[in-house]
Amino acid sequence: MRRRRLGATEFEITPIGLGCMQFAGPGLVEGFYPAIGQETVTAIVGAALAGGVNWFDTAEMYGKGASERALTTGLRAHGVKPGEVMIATKWTPTLRTAASIGHTVGDRLAALQGFPIDLHQIHQPVGSLSGIPRQVEAMARLCREGRITAVGVSNFSARQMRTAAVVLAAHGLTLASNQVQISLLHRDVERDGTLRTARELGVTLIAYSPLRSGLLTGKFHENPELVRKLPRVRRLMGGFSPAGLKRTAPLVAELNAIGKAYGVSAGQVALAWLTGFYGDTVVAIPGASKPRHVEESAAVLDLELTERELDRLAGLSPARS
């Protein structure tokens, strides 16, 4: 599958990247995924590189720099040099002013251990003590200073995206991306104007939770007992209730049927739908806690569904997430 341009930047990225939240280590993320050690992180990063993945998404919030350090440690272990892959990270706005963006960029660069911030994102549109325009102004300043290359946002609405784009345009810059939840079980971007606005502005949508926390892999439908082993927060947020499994069963059955025809898994078909149905506007960042997870995700780069298959899956997708 050919690479896609990230917004109007010069970065050409694979439709599948690697989300690095699982690299956070002990702490908040353990409420969703078990902590993994550096040896496993390095193996996961190696599997991503071997599969052709050329970009990685991390964040300050993921272990207060632990994910950033684990990622770049893994990259260096595989001989990757700064500039050879694209790295996206995020600033945490909670109870901070916009000035924090400039004050903490040095911490982000230190955690990335010599790798540049190719894409710096505002992690969420709420929680800051400063408004969105001031936050975006601070990001633009870092671009002018050459400390970051491109500006992105996360979880922004269509209106908030427009606000960010206007502020950046005043500095001769463009909004590169908006990271939002998108999957066959979460298609709000089609209804709330986010997809339409992204296309109008030339913004790339980065889809997180593209497999809805694993629900679209089908393994929990095949063996519902596995649900009990999941962290409670992940069960509640992912739709792993008996009713949720029943509601999504027809869709998962079709994912399995299409996967059987291609010799791939249901999860791989779900990712191929995501990177195919929306055209070049959407890229995805599935996470991985084991090398085989990213091996499966990377293999989707060679999988292209037919228009008929894309539409059939869309038709089976629940009307509301």
TrEMBL record:
Positions of the NADP-dependent oxidoreductase domain: 15-315
GO molecular function, one term: oxidoreductase activity
Pfam families assigned to the protein according to its UniProt record, in alphabetical order: Aldo_ket_red
Recorded GO CC terms: cytosol
Domain of life, per lineage: Bacteria
Record protein name field: Aryl-alcohol dehydrogenase-like predicted oxidoreductase
Organism: Thermocatellispora tengchongensis
